[in-house]
Specification:
- It is a single chain.
- 30% of the residues lie in helices and 20% in strands.
- It is an alpha+beta fold.
- It folds into two domains: 59 residues; 213 residues, Coagulation Factor XIII, Chain A, domain 1 (Distorted Sandwich).
- The strands form two sheets. Strands 2, 3, 5, 6, 8 and 9 form a six-stranded mixed beta sheet that branches. It has a three-stranded antiparallel beta sheet with strand order 1-4-7.
- Helix 1 runs antiparallel to helix 8.
- The longest helix has 32 residues.
Length: 307
């Protein structure tokens, strides 16, 4: 291969590397919320952002507008990196200390609550962009008062469920089992989803009611189940996408992708991972090497001409 052709090949490769780095730059986001037991934001979205039914959801819209509900799957901190308590102060757990979602922190006892009983429980997390990570679910202590701001100290230190999440979700959900302890009355389940392919983390608050269960340790009665708050239907999720401001960057959240599509790993999804700098440094190295080759070749040709 001639020098010109070799230099051209290396130059094209360097340019391609830079193009890949530029086109994939940005945060690759995962999104979702708990739907069983239904989270506060999901319950109000299911009621309808424009005409919510419960008073608390009406008050949420009056305080923050409808956008937090259309963006139901984005209660996150982009660079949490496991430092949840350091980044989220007491009283701001449900909003993840984001002003956009501040209404989710309203301390009141009329949030839609899912009836539950102690024992095994099947959790259901609606994910619009699956990613590798871990979901940890905590429950409030029996002494928790729902009319007061939720504090970290209100949560039991031992979670009721800890599960790894994968890069796929066959039906658009993460499904797993946990164990609920003995409780009475209203309680709250706090979910932390920390990605392991990015510092990003997601949070959700789900209100539950142990008082509506027929007998502790027994399945919730049919009557109580009928009164349970609804989660958003797939039709609602699809219909609301045009009003959502949440960007998935094509990572499993594209409306045209089937739920559970394989999501690129950190090696392919550049952003908060180390891959971005690696791609850029690789492209820079190739470009520098190409330039060095050109200069060296010119020097050799100049020596030959002088001789």
């Amino acid at each position: 291969m001639s020098f010109k052709r070799s230099a051209l090949s290396v130059g094209v490769l360097g340019a391609a590397f830079l193009a890949v780095a530029a086109s994939t730059a940005g945060t690759a986001s995962a999104h979702g919320t708990m739907t069983n037991p239904v989270s506060r934001v999901a319950a109000c979205y299911a009621e309808g952002p424009e005409n919510p039914k419960s008073q608390v959801c009406k008050d949420l819209v009056a305080l923050s507008g409808t956008q937090p509900l259309y963006d139901w799957n984005e209660v996150n901190i982009a660079n949490a990196d496991g430092h949840h308590q350091a980044l989220i102060p007491d009283g701001k757990l449900c909003s993840a200390n984001r002003d956009k979602y501040k209404a989710l922190d309203l301390p009141r006892a009329d949030w839609p609550a899912t009836p539950v009983s102690s024992g095994s429980f099947n959790f259901k997390f609606r994910v619009t962009a699956p990613h590798q990570g871990n979901q940890t679910v905590y429950i409030t202590k029996q002494s928790w008062d729902p009319t007061k701001p939720l504090k970290w100290s209100d949560l039991e230190p031992t979670p009721v469920a800890v599960v790894p999440t994968s890069r796929t979700a066959a039906d658009g959900y993460y499904n797993y089992t946990g164990t609920l302890p003995q409780r009475t009355g209203r309680q709250l389940l706090y979910t932390v989803w920390q990605r392991t392919d990015s510092p990003e983390a997601f949070y959700s608050c789900s209100d539950v009611d142990f008082g509506k269960a027929a007998t502790a340790g027994q399945p919730v009665s049919a009557l109580a189940a009928a009164d349970a708050p609804a989660a958003p239907s797939e039709q609602q999720i699809t219909a609301g996408q045009s009003k959502s401001t949440v960007s998935h960057n094509g990572h499993g959240g594209n409306a045209n992708e089937p739920a559970g599509a394989v999501v690129p790993t950190a090696n392919a999804a550049v952003g908060t991972s180390a891959t971005g700098p690696l791609l850029l440094s690789g492209a820079a190295a190739i470009s520098v090497g190409w330039a060095g080759m050109v200069l060296r070749r010119r020097r050799i040709e100049a020596v030959r001409r002088d001789a």
